[in-house]
Design a protein that fits this description.
Structural class of chain B: alpha/beta
Structural class of chain A: mainly alpha
Order of helices and strands of chain B: EEEHEEHEHHHEHEHEEHHH
Radius of gyration of chain A: 24 Å
Distance between the termini of chain A: 45 Å
Largest sheet of chain A: 2 strands, antiparallel
Largest sheet of chain B: 6 strands, mixed
Number of domains of chain B: 2
Number of strands of chain A: 2
Oligomer: heterodimer
CATH class of the largest domain in chain B: Alpha Beta
Number of helices of chain A: 11
Shape of chain A: globular
Largest interface: A-B, 21 and 26 residues
Strand order of the largest sheet of chain B: 6-7-8-3-9-10
Strand content of chain A: under 5%
Number of domains of chain A: 2
Chain lengths: 294, 281
């Protein structure tokens, strides 16, 4: 069950931890946009992606997010990457240049471009994973929901129940660790009855999953009923006006982070626009004056 | 089967900022065919200790010998863990949460089927186990979720007993039960012990320790703080372990203060006390 700990909040006190969650959510969206900006010349795209990747590695190191757990979750995704590779290799794409054939399998041509496209999508996925990981492991789940609630507040004008949505979200987030503990407990209890969750054929494992899922559901439903009773007993009213114990505040560090990320965003946006609309010249050529190999 | 624990350590979430050392260099021997209680306050490492016994948790260092089986930190060496779990079975806290089958008898037979017993034979053995824990025949075909808390727990225990383990480990078997329910469970445990099974109970209830167990282990901060008989424990200074005095002992101590001379090492139940009082008359 260790892979479930991906992106779990880790209590450090770094620069990233100190940021306002609202700010962090905004910055995450900006970085997502950065990741998906695309330049027509592939080598420029890879250079931009590489620079962004380095930037994110720096942020990860500053935030003390474990690179090991990133690698672990990437390890869990290898089958997806393999699947993507196969798709890129064998789905014909008119954009691939005819003289870029790498090798042929039974007279079916496989292009260099396929590998480049694949590499780019993998880098994008990895960077998305990194951004999400940085956000969730430096922000307490509760702060995250407060941040989200803040973004949903304008929707109150159109009678959107933003508080109820935020409460539902925060309860769901709050119970993830509880459910993980519960799952571990049931796995242990069933293992003591000879269930083997890790070995055996598909049918056996399927049966084993039943022995886990049913007790888990039963206890989750019981728990939710108890929770709603407990909330009602303490006079919870979703429509009442509420005050906050913890107030979100925009500090100087937030401004700093905002400026840094916006600078990165601006630089990338400039390169993209310049490369796509002003000059098709390769960035490598642009910077060093040397033509790339392909 | 004998249990021998050699300088066992266990760390949760090792190498992360949240790491906690739950067990530190624990060496123990648990006597065969006896009832052993493991006590200690919350977080002292009791539950971790019992989970390493059948390899649910692999030790960070050190090893556990159960009969011929060995549990070590090296994954590859622990090949026979499934068989070990059949001989050393753990009944977890609130075992009723592990019930999931449609009927009581199927749930009890579930464990047996995992060990390759055929359906019909498994149901037969399940009936035997259910009879042993005192569940009436009329319950066999009912859903386990319809039963009361105490009945569910007995069904869950039957599910473990059906495996016929040599060693039975129970984590807080009486938590959340009414006095009658607790008594039924404890009588069962005594019965299993008389049938020759080694019993390990993790508990917070000192009355259970005094009345039922032959041997007691006190855990404190992941270390063994005391090992011996219950009467030695309660006659000594127990304030340092932050545990309670059993009700019976409180009463006996008052009698002593009032001038009654009693042999404390021989008092385990109310009947023992009555015998001693009769002798005095």
């Amino acid at each position: 069950m260790n892979n479930l700990t991906f992106g779990r909040y880790s209590p450090f006190n770094t620069f990233t931890h100190k940021l306002d969650p609202r700010n962090k959510i905004f910055l995450m969206i900006v970085l997502f946009v950065c990741v998906f900006l695309k330049v027509t010349v592939w080598s420029s795209t890879l250079i931009i992606a590489g620079a962004l990747f380095l930037f994110m590695i720096c942020v990860m190191l500053i935030s003390k997010v474990s690179v090991l757990s990133l690698l672990k979750s990437l390890g869990a995704m290898w089958i997806l990457f393999l699947f993507l590779l196969i798709i890129y290799m064998f789905v014909p794409n008119p954009a691939y240049k005819a003289d870029h054939i790498a090798f042929t399998i039974n007279n079916y041509p496989v292009y260099y471009d396929a590998f480049i496209q694949w590499g780019y999508i993998v880098i994008r996925l990895v960077m998305m994973l990194m951004v999400t990981m940085i956000l969730t492991s430096t922000t307490k789940p509760m702060d995250l929901t407060y941040g989200l609630e803040w973004y949903l507040t304008p929707l109150k004008l159109v009678k959107f129940p933003s508080h109820i949505v935020a409460m539902t979200l925060s309860i769901a987030l709050r119970f993830i660790p509880t459910l993980i503990d519960e799952t571990n407990r049931i796995i242990k209890a069933q293992s003591s009855r000879g269930v083997d969750f890790n070995h055996g054929g598909i049918f056996k494992r399927f049966k084993a999953i039943f022995a886990l899922i049913i007790p888990l559901f039963v206890s989750a439903i019981t728990r939710s009923e108890e929770l709603s009773d407990a909330m009602e007993a303490r006079g919870y009213d979703p429509y009442a006006k509420r005050t906050r114990y913890r107030k979100l505040q925009f500090h100087l560090v937030d401004l700093l982070a905002l400026i840094i990320v916006l600078l990165v965003f601006g630089a990338i946006l400039f390169l993209v626009i310049y490369n796509n609309h002003v000059s098709q010249v390769d960035i490598i050529y642009w910077i060093s004056g040397v033509h790339p190999i392909i | 089967m004998q249990i021998k624990i050699n300088s066992l350590s266990y760390t949760y979430l090792a190498k992360t900022p949240n790491e906690v050392e739950a067990l530190h260099d624990v060496s123990l021997e648990i006597p065969e065919g006896k009832i052993t209680s493991i006590i200690g306050h919350t977080g002292s490492g009791k539950s971790t200790l019992i989970q390493t016994l059948n390899g649910l948790l692999l030790p960070t260092s050190g090893e556990v010998h159960v009969g011929d089986y060995v549990v070590t930190s090296k994954k590859k060496k622990n090949k026979k863990i499934k068989e070990l779990r059949k001989s050393l079975a753990i009944v977890f806290q609130f075992p009723e949460y592990q019930l999931f089958e449609e009927t009581v008898e199927k749930d009890v037979a579930f464990g047996l089927k995992n060990y390759g017993v055929k359906e019909a034979e498994a149901i037969k053995q399940a009936h035997k186990a259910l009879e042993e824990v005192g569940i009436d025949k009329s319950f066999y075909k009912r859903s386990p979720f319809e039963l009361s808390g105490g009945e569910k727990r007995r069904v869950a225990i039957a599910g473990i007993i059906a495996l016929n383990p040599d060693i039975l480990v129970l984590d807080e078997p009486t938590a959340g039960l009414d006095p009658l329910g607790s008594k039924i469970i404890l009588r069962l445990i005594e019965k299993f012990n008389k049938e020759g099974k080694t019993i390990i109970i993790v508990t917070h209830d000192m009355n259970i320790v005094l009345n039922y167990s032959d041997h007691v282990v006190v855990m404190n901060d992941g270390k063994v703080a005391f090992e011996g008989t219950p009467s030695t424990l309660f006659n000594g200074d127990i304030s340092k372990y932050s545990i309670d005095v059993p009700e019976l002992f409180k009463f006996v101590k008052i009698l002593e203060v009032k001038g009654m001379k009693l042999d404390l090492s021989k008092i385990r139940t109310i009947d023992d006390l009555i015998t001693q009082l009769k002798e005095k008359r």
